[in-house]
């Protein structure tokens, strides 16, 4: 992973328009004490980490919005003004709203975020990462 990220960062003309999402699929059967929404008959899985590498990413930002792997698809659809994948897919769910007292549980659930909170597209960060990236 760090090799791929470093290859992109090493090419500033390429990196200046990129967002790299680093995550993995499922928690490997580990118990998760966090809130899990009943999104479908199968529910939703345990939380997994997500890291964003981009010159537009908010540095050191931690978000408590309810996300799912579908959030990456929602990000692509919103960023490029594309329609949802299908009428039945979870990318049709609204973005979550939560209270300050409990930012983990959407008040309008089921709802899945679109990852836009991680970015500031109004300006390019001046502290763009340099080599080497170490995860």
Structural summary, described in words:
The chain is mainly α and 135 residues long. 16% of the residues lie in helices and 6% in strands. The chain has three helices and two strands, in the order ααββα.
Count of DSSP helices? 3
Segments where pLDDT lies below 50 for 5+ residues? none
Largest sheet, described in full? 2 strands, antiparallel
The secondary-structure element order is: HHEEH
List keywords for this structure.
single chain, 135 residues, mainly alpha, two-stranded antiparallel sheet, 3 helices, 2 strands
Topology:
Elements: H1 2-9, H2 12-15, E1 20-23, E2 50-53, H3 70-79
Antiparallel strand pairs: 1-2
Quick summary:
The protein has helices at 2-9, 12-15, 70-79, and strands at residues 20-23, 50-53.
